[in-house]
Structures are given as structure tokens and as C-alpha cells.
Amino acid sequence: MDFILYEVNGAVGTITINREKALNALNSQVLDELNATLDAVDLNTVRCLILTGAGEKSFVAGADIGEMSTLTKAEGEAFGKKGNDVFRKLETFPIPVIAAVNGFALGGGCEISMSCDIRICSENAMFGQPEVGLGITPGFGGTQRLARLVGAGMAKQMIYTARNIKADEAYRIGLVNQIVKAEVNEAGEVTVSAKDALMAAANKMAEGIAKQAPIAVRASKKAINDGLQVNMDEAIVIEEKLFGSCFETEDQKAGMGNFLEKDKEKKLKVVPFKNC
Length: 276
Ligand code: CAA
Description:
Bound molecules: acetoacetyl-coenzyme A
Order of helices and strands: EEHEEHHEEHEEHHEHEEEHHHH
Helix content: 40-55%
Strand content: 15-25%
Shape: globular
Mean pLDDT: 95
Number of domains: 2
Structural class: alpha/beta
CATH topology of the largest domain: 2-enoyl-CoA Hydratase, Chain A, domain 1
Strand order of the largest sheet: 1-2-3-5-7-10
Distance between the termini: 31 Å
Number of helices: 11
CATH architecture of the largest domain: Alpha-Beta Complex
Radius of gyration: 20 Å
Largest sheet: 6 strands, mixed
CATH superfamily of the largest domain: 2-enoyl-CoA Hydratase, Chain A, domain 1
């Protein structure tokens, strides 16, 4: 792989988009490599993913403008589909994905972060959908996911004005869950960089997720994602079925058994995903 790094630490996998010279912009090769990386994640051992961008300055500065500049209508549509297919794979990935947004998350960068379950960002993060300034619409799900996340009014304002927003505004409108600051000593010197602090926070959250019963975490993700696509009557049936699917699993027996035995020391005994 030229543009994707993947490392596993315990039950947490970290995918880094590694095209720093172009601020991690997404060209076709990056999208293909990301797709292949997701296919290769070992779901028997990894229980949570973190997605980030290489360096301190940029998470992902969008789809590659150079590559897009000469596309025909049909090629543009195909490029949109390529991105959408990978982002949808990320969104429906069986385990949770945390976007650790370090710096620019513009266009396709904002869109890929929105395909993740949770977004946390560094204080220098900047989010936006600047596409209309380039003469195109957002094309990797931005018109759909931004409106669902922050409401149609705010999404329309951001998209129509092409205005980028800083981390605090992204937090205020609910686009990110948490802003992580660099650590500074009394003399005002940075002791932990914004990126390192962000990755530490992302890992802490991921490890907290990975400690829970994996069958239940996976079923919760599916219930939320699938339920949001349908009306409430259908949504609660989706929940009932996934709730029911957790019973008789080793996770459920061990989790409830430990509680009833009042054994707080016992860790949940969890089964590999392939046995779900
Ligand atoms: N595509 C291709 N290359 C990009 C890029 C992108 N989206 N964003 C940055 N780069 C490249 C620059 O061309 C530059 O390359 P060179 O050194 O070879 O010239 C390098 O990254 C560094 O960028 P800058 O010199 O511009 O850095 P800066 O600090 O001055 O500005 C920035 C940073 C504000 C993010 C600016 O680079 C920028 O505005 N980038 C484009 C952001 C954007 O419009 N994204 C949306 C793309 S469209 C899209 O994503 C469509 C979709 O929905 C699918």
C-alpha cells in the first residue's frame, strides 16, 4: 500500500490515510487501498477501528481536485460511486469506527468522517463542504449525511455558503463529540502535541468500546444505523430482533452471570465474531 497505513494494537485497529504531501486528499488509489484495508481487517480480533490522517495539519483535505478536474459527467458519477461505496462500507462496518480528525476535514474529508460512528477532533480541526466553490456538489455523501447529523438548515447553510467551520463550532452543532487539546505546561510549552493528545483520546475511547461484549456492540451499531432509515414502528422491530439475537450467546450468559454472582472482578467472557 502506498497511501494507507494499518496497525493493530490489542483489539484496536488504526487506519491512517498517508498522503501527507497532498494533505491526505482522496484520489482513486487511496480509495482502492482503503477499501482493501477494510476487507483485510480481522474481525475476530479487532473490536474497534480508528481512522485518522497522517501528520498534524490535515485529516483529509477532500477528494483529489487534480484527478477530478478533467472528468466527464459519466466519469464524475463513477468517481462519486467509488467514494460512496467505500464510505458506505465504513459506515456499515460491523464494528465501530472512530474518526480522529486532525486538522482539515474538507469536502471528502468531512464526508469520510461522517461515515464513521463517532468523530473526535483536535482543536486545530476545520470542517466544511467547500464543493460549490469548485463548481460541484458534495459527492461522497455530504448532502445526505451532513443533513442527517446537524439538521437540514445548518447543512444547507454550510453547503450553499461553502464556509468552513472551526472545531468549536463543529462541536456546538453536534458534528463532533469531543475536542481534544494539546497539553501545555505552566511555562506555556506544549508537552503533548495536539495530534498525540487526539490519538491518546481516540485510543482510550476505542479501548473502552473494545472492553464491552462485542456481539452487543455490533448489534447496537446495526440497530441504530438500520433503525434510522425507517419509521419508528419498523425501527423498534429491528431493535427487538437484534436484542433477541444477543440471548443465548456466551457474552450474554457471562455478562449477566457475572452480575448475578456479584463478581465485579470477572471480565466479560466474549466470543469471537465468527461464532456470533
Ligand atoms: N486535492 C488535491 N490536492 C490537494 C487538495 C485536494 N483536495 N487539498 C490540498 N492539496 C494539495 C495542494 O495542491 C498542495 O499541493 P502542492 O504542494 O503540490 O502544491 C498541498 O496539498 C498543500 O496544500 P496547500 O498548499 O493548498 O496548503 P494550504 O495550507 O495553503 O491550504 C487547504 C490548505 C485550505 C486545505 C487548501 O489546500 C485547500 O483549500 N484544499 C482544497 C480543499 C477542498 O476544496 N476540498 C474539497 C475537494 S472537492 C470534494 O471533496 C468533492 C467530494 O465531495 C467528493
